[in-house]
């Protein structure tokens, strides 16, 4: 994954992706860092942070309850989207022809599962890619 990177390589196709991740996976992954997140909000409160506001309004719930709340869930998912995708798919380029996720543009709960969508680019192992910062 190379989020937000512009691809200068000719003929790189950009496509839209959608992925539905199991809600239990999201709860388990968020649970690993949840106490630190809540601790940071307590230590460094920001009255203008929408995620902090949503969690405080729920009296600092755990990840499962936060993902079940219609106000908190999209804010939690927006904050953790990259991490959810990184841990599910890995951070490397595919060994065979495939795609590399480049953005997250939409997040939401779909039932108990996590829906993410955005843009990806094609990847061919034999192509030498030119990145924006090269």
Structure explained in plain terms:
With 134 residues, the chain is α+β, with helices and mostly antiparallel strands. It is 39% helix and 21% strand. The chain has 4 helices and 4 strands, in the order βααααβββ. The chain has helices spanning 23-43, 50-57, 63-67, 72-89; strands at residues 14-21, 98-101, 106-110, 113-123. Strands 1, 2, 3 and 4 form a 4-stranded antiparallel β-sheet that branches. A hairpin with a 2-residue loop joins strand 3 (106-110) and strand 4. Helix 2 (50-57) packs across helix 4. It is elongated. The mean pLDDT is 87.
The run of helices and strands is: EHHHHEEE
- Percent of residues in β-strands: 15-25%
Mean pLDDT: 87
Oligomer: single chain
Low-confidence stretches: none
Q: N-to-C terminal Cα separation, in Å? A: 17 Å
Structural class: alpha+beta
Proportion in helices: 25-40%
Shape: elongated
Q: In total, how many beta strands?
A: 4
Number of helices: 4
Radius of gyration, in angstroms, nearest whole number:
17 Å
Largest sheet: 4 strands, antiparallel
